[in-house]
Amino acid sequence: MDAAGAAQAILDHFRAYRRAFESVTAAAGQRFLSADWRGVQDASARRLDLYNVHIEAAVARIAGEPSGTAAFPSGFWLEAKERYRKLIAHRPDGDLAETAYNSVYRRAIDPDFPVDDDLFVHSSFQRAPPPSVDPVFTTYPTAGGVASMLRRMLDEQVGELNWQDLDRDLANILTSLAEAGLDRQGAPSLEVDVVNSLFYRNKGAYIVGRLRFGERVRPFSLPLSLDAERKAYIDTLICDEDELSIVFSFTRAYFMVGSSYPFGLVEFLHSLLPNKKRSEIYASIGEHRHGKTEFYRDFLRHLDRSDDYFEVAPGIKGTVMTVFTLPSYQTVFKVIKDRFAPQKYVTANDVRNKYYMVKSHDRVGRMADTQEFENFSLPRERLAPGLLDELRAVAAGSVAVDEEVVRIEHLYTERSMTPLNLYVGSARGAALTDALDEYGNAIKQLAAANIFPGDMLLKNFGVTRHGRVVFYDYDEICYLTDVNFRAIPEATNMEDEMSADPWYSVAPNDVFPEEFRRFLFGRAETKRLFEKMHGDLFDPEYWRDLQRAIRDGQVIDVFPYRRRKRFSARDAASLARLPQLSVETVASH
Questions:
Q1: Bridge-partner residues for 373, per DSSP?
Q2: In the beta sheet, which residues pair with residue 371?
Q3: Of 243, 171, 254, residue with least CA distance to 564
Q4: Could you say which of 124, 131, 256, 513 has the lowest number of CB atoms within 10 Å?
Q5: Is the pLDDT of residue 141 over 50?
Q6: Which pLDDT value is given to residue 535?
Q7: pTM reported for the whole predicted model
Q8: Distance CA 164, CA 547 (A)
Q9: Residue 411: phi, psi to the nearest 5?
Q10: 3-class SS shares of the chain: helix, strand, coil, % to 5
């Protein structure tokens, strides 16, 4: 196959991937309406696998074999890239198409010798974005009143729904706008821009947009839920950047949202979340592979404008991973060690599989998303001597060092957080109480989503900038339903009771929750405080009850906002006035 044929083959398989991706995504609305929550989980995992299927098919077509590498003549890939650039120049998803090309290239060639000029290291759409097609959002003026605008917007964006009590929901929205002070921010000029697709995830659907008061902008989101009778209701109003950032957090599963113009959708969302990296926004809408590309491009730009050194990450060193960071960048880099501590009964391949399990599972806001890289290069001059010594000592099999570059064969990147053990060690009063409560809630929500962390030590959890506690060490993670939770048998004699070793048999999947009291906390005060809030975690029956619920097919409700934010049923008196209400009269309603 010549270079022109290779370019066309990559585009053909990229088109097939996009059709399959969009087909799974388009069915999200029906899954929501039919409350097919198991189908939601299955579709998320199925969509995640599509990329590899189509990339491998492209590699096989070009290289003539399903895997491995083939010999290509000099200049083959440079010509293929230029031909491909012309093929995708007018595609609205051209940015994603570049990532597909890069993936095929890196799998088709000898992985030790990639050539940057053969890759889209920098996007060809830097100066001019991909051409737009369908509009990303619709603008709704409020000249006729906020309530009538909301009715019109819901009718156009959501369509026919069996509402539980729409009048009540509209009253809740209007009251919440007043409580947020938005009834006093230049009401005559208020317009609402709403994305032309719903965002589906877990058991919810989200209307996402922005409130514009002239030059002032506030994010705007309405989460929709279904009750047991499949009647729809609006669960809350989100009109704060930090709150919307949590909805789009790197700790949550990817949204299902239809978009013929991903670049435009990401730009719109970035206008609502300017502190969130575009790479994270791409990932949040299911384009995690292109999110990886955007991360790498942003990383290269950051290296050019910074001068600090990569160094060993603070905290207790891991037994499976060595972790380092660049202090000026909000990312940690994790490399699997050559050898693990004796108490670790996993292999490097096991660890990779567990990280993939996390990516394909519902993370319920409690597990950090990661990006996986191969042959990741760092400038040697930017590595602190202690870090280079550490990599050579514990991961020499994965690290190649020359005079200018340190190349790491396989690593993961992850958003940096404050290790929970360090946070708890210095926290006092309300800060300590909140952190411990979050820690317990994180364990419970993971468990309800059929995830058992395995190693629940505080060092394996982190605290985000929003104060949420998140699990990030996955080498012992497993499905909750695979664990055998047992009570510790009573000792039959004093000799057994005084023994340092257990007097009872222990199988590999046995867990004794009573033991959590002993090893999770160092300070007695911390242990007592945690037990007061989450003492049920020490009871084997608590875990067994969750297992029974999961096996019975129950899917938990996971809200990406505080429960206190949820609407309660409010007095629906005088709702006949709603169509005439404007934002100026909300406060008096």
A1: 411
A2: 413
A3: 243
A4: 131
A5: yes
A6: 93
A7: 0.89
A8: 32
A9: -150, 165
A10: 45, 15, 35
Q: Yes or no: say if 241 and 272 are a contact pair by the CB < 8 Å rule.
A: yes
* φ and ψ of 256, to 5 deg: -100, 110
Q: Is 369 tagged catalytic?
A: yes
* Tokens matching residue 583: 């934002």
Q: Is 269 helix (H, G, I), strand (E, B) or coil?
A: helix
pLDDT of residue 553: 83
End-to-end Cα separation, the chain, in angstroms:
71
Q: How far apart are CA 87 and CA 348, in angstroms?
A: 40
CB atoms within 10 A of CB 494: 8
In this predicted structure, the answer to whether residue 140 has a pLDDT above a threshold of 90 is yes
Phi, psi of 493 (to 5 degrees): -155, 170
Rounded to whole angstroms, the Cα distance separating 213 from 290 reads 33
* Tokens describing residue 260: 């013929």
148-158 tens-digit pLDDT: 999 999 999 99
Question: With bands split at pLDDT 50, 70 and 90, how would you rate the model's confidence at 103?
Answer: very high
Q: Alpha carbon of 221 to those of 60, 177, 254, 365, 379: distances in Å? A: 44, 12, 17, 18, 42
Catalytic residue (one of 169, 183, 193, 369)? 369
* Residue matched to tokens 């364990």: 443
What SS3 string covers 373-391? EEEEEEEHHHECHHHHHHH
Can you list the positions of beta strands (E) in 196-315? 199-201, 204-213, 216-226, 232-234, 311-312
Q: Is there a contact between 561 and 236 (Cβ–Cβ < 8 Å)?
A: yes
Write down how long the chain is.
Answer: 589
Angstrom CA distances, 330 to 308, 317, 415, stand at 13, 19, 6
Question: What per-residue confidence (pLDDT) applies to 580?
Answer: 32
Q: Are strands 510-511 and 484-485 parallel, antiparallel or unpaired?
A: parallel
CA distances from residue 207 to 228, 331, 383, 560 in whole angstroms, order as listed: 21, 30, 45, 14
Which residue, chain included where needed, has tokens 């991360």?
295
The answer to whether 287 touches 25, Cβ cutoff 8 Å, is no
What pLDDT sits at residue 327? 95
Q: How far apart are CA 64 and CA 7, in angstroms?
A: 15
3-state secondary structure 4-68: HHHHHHHHHHHHHHHHHHHHHHHCHHHHHHCCCHHHHHHHHHHHHHHHHHHHHHHHHHHHCCCCC
Q: Do 90 and 55 contact (CB within 8 A), yes or no?
A: no
| pLDDT score recorded for residue 497 | 64
β strands within 437-538, DSSP E = 451-452, 461-463, 469-471, 478-479, 484-485, 510-511
Residue-level pLDDT at 363: 78
What is the distance between the alpha carbons of residues 169 and 173, in angstroms, rounded to a whole number?
6
